[in-house]
Protein backbone atom coordinates (compact mmCIF):
# COMPACT_ATOMS: atom_id res chain seq x y z
CA UNK A 1 0.00 0.00 0.00
CA UNK A 2 1.43 3.35 -1.04
CA UNK A 3 0.24 6.31 0.97
CA UNK A 4 0.61 9.71 -0.64
CA UNK A 5 1.83 11.55 2.46
CA UNK A 6 5.45 11.20 3.53
CA UNK A 7 4.97 9.02 6.62
CA UNK A 8 8.59 7.98 6.69
CA UNK A 9 11.04 7.41 9.46
CA UNK A 10 12.01 11.09 9.19
CA UNK A 11 9.03 12.04 11.36
CA UNK A 12 11.03 10.99 14.41
CA UNK A 13 12.75 14.36 14.20
CA UNK A 14 9.59 15.82 15.74
CA UNK A 15 10.43 14.01 18.95
CA UNK A 16 14.21 14.26 19.20
CA UNK A 17 14.12 17.73 20.71
CA UNK A 18 12.18 16.34 23.65
CA UNK A 19 14.43 13.31 24.20
CA UNK A 20 16.93 13.31 27.05
CA UNK A 21 19.87 11.00 27.67
CA UNK A 22 19.50 9.35 31.06
CA UNK A 23 22.96 7.88 31.47
CA UNK A 24 25.12 5.68 29.28
CA UNK A 25 24.95 2.02 28.40
CA UNK A 26 27.47 -0.56 27.38
CA UNK A 27 27.61 -0.44 23.59
CA UNK A 28 27.68 -3.59 21.52
CA UNK A 29 30.33 -3.96 18.78
CA UNK A 30 29.46 -2.33 15.49
CA UNK A 31 28.64 -4.54 12.53
CA UNK A 32 31.19 -5.60 9.95
CA UNK A 33 31.38 -2.84 7.33
CA UNK A 34 32.79 -4.91 4.49
CA UNK A 35 29.64 -4.70 2.34
CA UNK A 36 28.15 -1.40 3.50
CA UNK A 37 27.92 2.03 1.88
CA UNK A 38 30.39 4.89 2.40
CA UNK A 39 27.74 6.75 4.44
CA UNK A 40 27.29 3.78 6.75
CA UNK A 41 31.03 3.28 7.15
CA UNK A 42 31.48 6.95 8.01
CA UNK A 43 28.73 6.86 10.64
CA UNK A 44 30.11 3.66 12.16
CA UNK A 45 33.59 5.15 12.32
CA UNK A 46 32.29 8.25 14.11
CA UNK A 47 30.26 6.11 16.51
CA UNK A 48 33.33 4.05 17.39
CA UNK A 49 34.94 7.20 18.80
CA UNK A 50 31.73 8.73 20.18
CA UNK A 51 29.39 5.85 21.10
CA UNK A 52 27.04 8.09 23.10
CA UNK A 53 26.23 10.33 20.12
CA UNK A 54 22.61 9.36 19.65
CA UNK A 55 22.18 11.57 16.61
CA UNK A 56 24.87 9.56 14.80
CA UNK A 57 23.18 6.30 15.76
CA UNK A 58 19.83 7.62 14.56
CA UNK A 59 21.42 8.53 11.23
CA UNK A 60 22.99 5.09 11.01
CA UNK A 61 19.60 3.46 11.56
CA UNK A 62 18.09 5.46 8.70
CA UNK A 63 20.93 4.50 6.35
CA UNK A 64 20.64 0.82 7.31
CA UNK A 65 16.89 0.84 6.71
CA UNK A 66 17.37 2.56 3.35
CA UNK A 67 19.75 -0.22 2.32
CA UNK A 68 17.40 -2.98 3.58
CA UNK A 69 19.74 -4.03 6.39
CA UNK A 70 16.91 -4.40 8.86
CA UNK A 71 18.51 -6.68 11.44
CA UNK A 72 21.50 -4.36 11.75
CA UNK A 73 19.16 -1.38 12.03
CA UNK A 74 17.14 -3.09 14.74
CA UNK A 75 20.31 -3.81 16.72
CA UNK A 76 21.17 -0.10 16.67
CA UNK A 77 17.62 0.88 17.63
CA UNK A 78 17.80 -1.46 20.61
CA UNK A 79 20.89 0.45 21.73
CA UNK A 80 18.86 3.66 21.65
CA UNK A 81 15.95 2.04 23.47
CA UNK A 82 18.26 0.90 26.27
CA UNK A 83 18.75 4.57 27.10
CA UNK A 84 15.17 5.67 26.49
CA UNK A 85 12.82 2.67 26.55
CA UNK A 86 9.69 4.84 26.44
CA UNK A 87 10.79 7.16 23.62
CA UNK A 88 7.92 7.43 21.11
CA UNK A 89 10.46 8.28 18.42
CA UNK A 90 12.59 5.19 18.97
CA UNK A 91 9.57 2.91 19.35
CA UNK A 92 8.25 4.26 16.06
CA UNK A 93 11.66 3.78 14.49
CA UNK A 94 11.68 0.13 15.56
CA UNK A 95 8.13 -0.40 14.29
CA UNK A 96 9.10 1.13 10.94
CA UNK A 97 12.09 -1.19 10.55
CA UNK A 98 10.03 -4.21 11.55
CA UNK A 99 7.31 -3.26 9.07
CA UNK A 100 9.85 -2.98 6.27
CA UNK A 101 11.29 -6.33 7.33
CA UNK A 102 7.76 -7.75 6.87
CA UNK A 103 7.44 -8.69 10.55
CA UNK A 104 3.88 -7.39 10.70
CA UNK A 105 2.92 -8.72 14.13
CA UNK A 106 5.95 -7.17 15.82
CA UNK A 107 5.51 -3.90 13.90
CA UNK A 108 1.91 -3.64 15.11
CA UNK A 109 3.10 -4.16 18.69
CA UNK A 110 5.72 -1.40 18.50
CA UNK A 111 3.44 1.10 16.74
CA UNK A 112 0.99 0.54 19.59
CA UNK A 113 3.76 1.08 22.14
CA UNK A 114 4.79 4.30 20.39
CA UNK A 115 1.19 5.55 20.50
CA UNK A 116 0.85 4.65 24.18
CA UNK A 117 4.11 6.41 25.02
CA UNK A 118 3.26 9.57 23.08
CA UNK A 119 -0.40 9.86 24.03
CA UNK A 120 -1.14 11.35 20.61
CA UNK A 121 0.89 10.14 17.63
CA UNK A 122 -1.13 10.46 14.44
CA UNK A 123 1.60 9.15 12.12
CA UNK A 124 1.99 5.96 14.15
CA UNK A 125 -1.79 5.54 14.35
CA UNK A 126 -2.06 5.74 10.57
CA UNK A 127 0.77 3.28 10.03
CA UNK A 128 -0.87 0.93 12.52
CA UNK A 129 -4.21 1.29 10.75
CA UNK A 130 -2.49 0.51 7.45
CA UNK A 131 -1.11 -2.75 8.81
CA UNK A 132 -4.49 -3.69 10.20
CA UNK A 133 -6.03 -2.95 6.79
CA UNK A 134 -3.53 -5.21 5.06
CA UNK A 135 -4.44 -8.05 7.42
CA UNK A 136 -8.20 -7.48 7.14
CA UNK A 137 -8.54 -6.45 10.78
CA UNK A 138 -11.55 -4.21 11.50
CA UNK A 139 -9.39 -2.19 13.88
CA UNK A 140 -8.25 -0.38 10.73
CA UNK A 141 -11.66 1.26 10.38
CA UNK A 142 -11.86 2.15 14.07
CA UNK A 143 -8.44 3.82 14.01
CA UNK A 144 -9.21 5.67 10.78
CA UNK A 145 -12.51 6.96 12.13
CA UNK A 146 -10.74 8.24 15.26
CA UNK A 147 -8.09 9.94 13.13
CA UNK A 148 -10.71 11.61 10.94
CA UNK A 149 -11.99 13.37 14.08
CA UNK A 150 -8.51 14.49 15.12
CA UNK A 151 -7.65 18.08 14.03
CA UNK A 152 -3.91 17.33 13.94
CA UNK A 153 -4.53 14.62 11.33
CA UNK A 154 -6.30 16.93 8.88
CA UNK A 155 -3.28 17.05 6.55
CA UNK A 156 -3.43 13.25 6.31
CA UNK A 157 -7.15 13.05 5.53
CA UNK A 158 -6.70 11.52 2.06
CA UNK A 159 -4.28 8.94 3.40
CA UNK A 160 -6.67 8.02 6.21
CA UNK A 161 -9.51 7.50 3.74
CA UNK A 162 -7.14 5.51 1.52
CA UNK A 163 -6.28 3.15 4.38
CA UNK A 164 -9.96 2.75 5.24
CA UNK A 165 -10.68 1.91 1.60
CA UNK A 166 -7.84 -0.62 1.61
CA UNK A 167 -9.50 -2.45 4.49
CA UNK A 168 -12.78 -2.75 2.59
CA UNK A 169 -10.93 -3.86 -0.52
CA UNK A 170 -9.11 -6.50 1.54
CA UNK A 171 -12.39 -7.97 2.79
CA UNK A 172 -13.84 -7.83 -0.76
CA UNK A 173 -16.38 -5.09 -0.07
CA UNK A 174 -15.85 -3.42 -3.44
CA UNK A 175 -18.80 -1.04 -3.05
CA UNK A 176 -17.50 0.58 0.14
CA UNK A 177 -13.93 0.64 -1.17
CA UNK A 178 -15.02 2.30 -4.43
CA UNK A 179 -17.10 4.89 -2.57
CA UNK A 180 -14.06 5.86 -0.51
CA UNK A 181 -11.77 6.03 -3.56
CA UNK A 182 -14.35 8.29 -5.20
CA UNK A 183 -14.39 10.51 -2.12
CA UNK A 184 -10.59 10.80 -2.15
CA UNK A 185 -10.59 11.75 -5.84
CA UNK A 186 -13.29 14.36 -5.29
CA UNK A 187 -11.33 15.92 -2.45
CA UNK A 188 -7.87 15.57 -4.02
CA UNK A 189 -7.82 14.79 -7.74
CA UNK A 190 -4.01 14.45 -7.64
CA UNK A 191 -4.14 11.40 -5.36
CA UNK A 192 -3.00 9.04 -8.10
CA UNK A 193 -2.97 5.90 -5.97
CA UNK A 194 -6.75 6.18 -5.48
CA UNK A 195 -7.30 5.99 -9.25
CA UNK A 196 -5.05 2.94 -9.45
CA UNK A 197 -6.77 1.09 -6.63
CA UNK A 198 -10.23 1.93 -7.97
CA UNK A 199 -9.09 0.78 -11.42
CA UNK A 200 -7.84 -2.50 -9.99
CA UNK A 201 -11.33 -3.26 -8.70
CA UNK A 202 -12.58 -3.04 -12.31
CA UNK A 203 -9.51 -4.94 -13.55
CA UNK A 204 -10.13 -7.83 -11.16
CA UNK A 205 -13.72 -8.03 -12.41
CA UNK A 206 -12.53 -8.24 -16.02
CA UNK A 207 -13.87 -4.76 -16.83
CA UNK A 208 -10.70 -3.75 -18.60
CA UNK A 209 -12.01 -0.75 -20.55
CA UNK A 210 -13.25 0.90 -17.34
CA UNK A 211 -9.99 0.11 -15.58
CA UNK A 212 -7.98 1.54 -18.48
CA UNK A 213 -9.82 4.88 -18.28
CA UNK A 214 -8.80 5.28 -14.65
CA UNK A 215 -5.19 4.26 -15.26
CA UNK A 216 -4.98 6.66 -18.19
CA UNK A 217 -6.28 9.51 -16.04
CA UNK A 218 -3.28 9.16 -13.75
CA UNK A 219 -0.89 9.71 -16.65
CA UNK A 220 -2.92 12.72 -17.81
CA UNK A 221 -2.52 14.22 -14.34
CA UNK A 222 1.17 13.30 -14.17
CA UNK A 223 3.08 12.10 -17.21
CA UNK A 224 5.84 10.94 -14.83
CA UNK A 225 3.69 8.35 -13.05
CA UNK A 226 5.25 5.01 -13.96
CA UNK A 227 2.56 2.87 -12.32
CA UNK A 228 -0.11 4.48 -14.48
CA UNK A 229 1.65 3.48 -17.70
CA UNK A 230 2.31 -0.01 -16.34
CA UNK A 231 -1.35 -0.67 -15.55
CA UNK A 232 -2.44 0.85 -18.84
CA UNK A 233 -0.17 -1.68 -20.52
CA UNK A 234 -1.59 -4.54 -18.45
CA UNK A 235 -5.15 -3.70 -19.48
CA UNK A 236 -4.10 -3.18 -23.11
CA UNK A 237 -2.65 -6.69 -23.13
CA UNK A 238 -5.96 -8.02 -21.84
CA UNK A 239 -7.76 -6.13 -24.64
CA UNK A 240 -5.33 -7.55 -27.27
CA UNK A 241 -3.84 -4.13 -27.98
CA UNK A 242 -0.33 -5.49 -28.10
CA UNK A 243 1.53 -2.54 -29.61
CA UNK A 244 -0.08 -0.08 -27.21
CA UNK A 245 0.85 -2.37 -24.34
CA UNK A 246 4.46 -2.58 -25.51
CA UNK A 247 4.69 1.21 -25.77
CA UNK A 248 3.34 1.72 -22.26
CA UNK A 249 5.51 -1.00 -20.71
CA UNK A 250 8.46 0.86 -22.21
CA UNK A 251 7.20 4.19 -20.83
CA UNK A 252 6.81 2.72 -17.35
CA UNK A 253 10.35 1.34 -17.43
CA UNK A 254 11.78 4.60 -18.71
CA UNK A 255 10.41 6.22 -15.55
CA UNK A 256 11.09 3.38 -13.11
CA UNK A 257 13.58 0.62 -13.89
CA UNK A 258 12.51 -1.31 -10.78
CA UNK A 259 9.21 -2.43 -12.34
CA UNK A 260 10.39 -5.96 -13.08
CA UNK A 261 6.94 -7.06 -14.28
CA UNK A 262 7.22 -4.61 -17.16
CA UNK A 263 10.61 -6.08 -18.10
CA UNK A 264 9.15 -9.59 -17.95
CA UNK A 265 6.19 -8.51 -20.10
CA UNK A 266 8.47 -7.11 -22.79
CA UNK A 267 10.39 -10.38 -22.84
CA UNK A 268 7.14 -12.32 -23.06
CA UNK A 269 6.00 -10.14 -25.95
CA UNK A 270 9.29 -10.75 -27.77
CA UNK A 271 10.50 -7.15 -27.61
CA UNK A 272 13.64 -7.91 -25.60
CA UNK A 273 15.55 -11.10 -24.98
Structure described in brief:
This protein is mainly α and about 270 residues long.
Describe the structure.
The protein has helices spanning 13-16, 38-49, 54-66, 70-83, 88-100, 104-118, 122-134, 139-148, 157-170, 174-187, 192-204, 208-221, 226-238, 242-255, 260-268. The protein is built from 15 helices and no strands. Helix 7 runs antiparallel to helix 8. The protein has a domain at 189-273: Tetratricopeptide repeat domain (Serine Threonine Protein Phosphatase 5, Tetratricopeptide repeat, Alpha Horseshoe).
H/I helix tally: 15
Helix content: 55-70%
Structural category is mainly alpha
The percentage of residues in β strands lies in: under 5%
Mean pLDDT: 89
What is the general shape?
globular
- Element string (H = helix, E = strand): HHHHHHHHHHHHHHH
Number of strands: 0
Report the CATH topology name of the domain at 189-273. Serine Threonine Protein Phosphatase 5, Tetratricopeptide repeat
Reported CATH architecture of the domain at 189-273:
Alpha Horseshoe
Identify low-pLDDT runs. 5-34
**Cα-based radius of gyration, to the nearest Å:** 22 Å
Topology:
Layout lengths: L12 H4 L21 H12 L4 H13 L3 H14 L4 H13 L3 H15 L3 H13 L4 H10 L8 H14 L3 H14 L4 H13 L3 H14 L4 H13 L3 H14 L4 H9 L5
Record keyword descriptors for this entry.
mainly alpha, single chain, 273 residues, 15 helices, globular, Serine Threonine Protein Phosphatase 5, Tetratricopeptide repeat
